Amino acid sequence: MVGTTTNEIAGTVSDRVYELKAFDDTKAGVKGLVDAGIGKVPSLFHHPPDKFGKASNLGNTEHVIPVIDLSEVGKDPSTHQEIVRRIREASEKWGFFQVVNHGIPVSVLSDMKDGVRKFYEQDIEVKKEVYTRELKPFVYNSNFDLYSSPALNWRDTFACYLSPNTPKPEELPEVCRDIQLEYGKHVMKLGTTLFELLSEALGLHPNHLKGMGCAEGLITLGHYYPSCPEPELTMGTTKHSDNDFLTVLLQDHIGGLQVLYQDQWIDVPPAPGALVLMTNDRFKSVEHRVLANSVGPRISVACFFSTGLLPSPKLYGPIKELLSEDNPPRYRETTVSEYVTYFIAKGLDGISALQHFRI
């Protein structure tokens, strides 16, 4: 900064921290700003222009996120292998695919989205009682990386830690308690099937990824993206790749989810299920983001298969069965806890956390 003194820079940083704390102390989140009738997006939420292009994939068959029907899994050998082939192709090309006929009733999907909406739209004084940045079975706040990210996202989030230690019912908000527990059971079952299919897609035994502990932990994130008066200035969620083994995403009808493919942002049309897995770059850990919108609120539920809360010394890295002289490891081994701790401390700054673990 030409002509700017150290004291001025320090003052600017101090002002920002004060504004962040003031926002946090309201315990009302972004929804609180909207409910107060805010007409402009505060500078804390301003994001720089994205450097990647926006490709319209409406009607473009080349840029269509794969949709895979799971209804015939395990019934007919040839059909099963075709599903495995499609999952392999989608995971290598996109790192993202959608599943239909996955066994979770439509009524459960609808009730889960309604449960998220009811939680955020209940009286603010009730929500304030569970607003926290401490690690608990149920955590509600706005922007987990509030004090570390370059710019805030236009969303509020609750996290519910469902497995391996299932919370007691009284530890969850009554308004979404029952559906949280029911939805978690369905997702755990679906996850087991997906890990088997992904193992096969890698040429491994169906139980390989489960045997590594990939299906042991489950965290549900309920996101609420309020309508935004100036959506072009901010983001619903900054560009990032997830910090877990696999993500199952349920989104509502509004849309806004995009994946980065060949340096272009591709829209992911709403459908019940989007999944991510990292295997030494053979399967992409895809970077994605969510746009802010002016019509909201947008509701989404992201289920993370992760054991980040388990104090385990177990090391994870590129699957050894997939390595060779021609395909050496591209990432160093790390514990899930170390990876998650780094991801949270770094925040959503637009740079993949995976880069930190590259060899």
From TrEMBL:
InterPro entries: DIOX_N, IPNS-like_FE2OG_OXY, IPNS-like_sf, Oxoglu/Fe-dep_dioxygenase_dom. Keywords: Iron, Metal-binding, Oxidoreductase. Residues 214-308 form the Fe2OG dioxygenase domain. It comes from the Eukaryota. Pfam families: 2OG-FeII_Oxy, DIOX_N. One of its GO terms (molecular function) is metal ion binding. Its cofactor is Fe cation. Coiled coil: none annotated. Belongs to the iron/ascorbate-dependent oxidoreductase family. This is Fe2OG dioxygenase domain-containing protein. The lineage of its organism: Eukaryota, Viridiplantae, Streptophyta, Embryophyta, Tracheophyta.
